[in-house]
Amino acid sequence: MTDESLRAARLLDAQAKAAELFTEIEARGLVVAGRGEREVSDHIRDLANEMFGTTHYWHKRIVRSGPNTLLPYRENPPDRTIAADDIAFADFGPIFEEYEADFGRTFVLGDDPVKHRLRDDLSTVFAAGRRAFDADPDITGKQLYTEIERLAAEAGWQLGGWHAGHLVGEFPPEHNNWEDVDSHIVPANDKPLRRTDEAGRLLHWILEIHLIDQERQFGGFYEELLTL
Q: Given its phi and psi angles, is residue 133 left (phi above 0), alpha (psi -120 to 50 degrees) or beta?
């Protein structure tokens, strides 16, 4: 394996483990009415340790429900108890063998059709964003953000964050300046996403879809690798 293929394989393996973790979260019914967000986050942390021996995360562990799902990553809302007819999402960045995963999914409790539609639209917008990325070898961060914003509006939602993705790689992350537009899929990033870093290594990106409904006061989140 070349260095590049090894890096790619390890990032994919880290993501596969994160996906397995989230499958088990759903199978065990960890996101359930009556539990606080922090309690659910702690249950997921313990499950990751049980399944993979994972004890380190490259960003804070996030579980948000109800109106807290409107808030972007940087916010730290008070702990909230999940309600019976709620929507909630989990955003975790576990480290597997020194490689970062960044994975997010949304859970709907109850039968609210609008919440179910939002949850389903997350993966649809993600897939369309990935197709846009695949179709243009020179696509910039600005161009992809604009397309994600258009797709969200077309589906009847707004974007909930200031960016639509970021770099991912080995831990500790070399690109850890959260103000650096070149490390994010944002309107100010005019650089092509397919490029190399200072060491000549290919950059790999996470695509984040955070859709919100301001009127109804809820949102949802979907996140995984874009480039592999």
A: alpha
Q: What residues contact residue 220 under an 8 Å CB cut-off, 6+ apart? A: 69, 87, 89, 106, 115, 118, 119, 122, 210, 211, 212
Token digits for 89?
């999402």
Distances (CA, A) of 98 to 17, 168, 191: 13, 12, 27
Bridge partners for 222 per DSSP: 209
Dihedral sign for Cα 28, 37, 151, 190, please. negative
**pTM of the predicted protein model:** 0.94
For the stretch 8-53, pLDDT in tens is: 999 999 899 999 999 999 999 999 999 999 999 999 999 999 999 9
Determine which helix (DSSP H) or strand (DSSP E) holds 24, and give its type and residue range.
helix 3-27
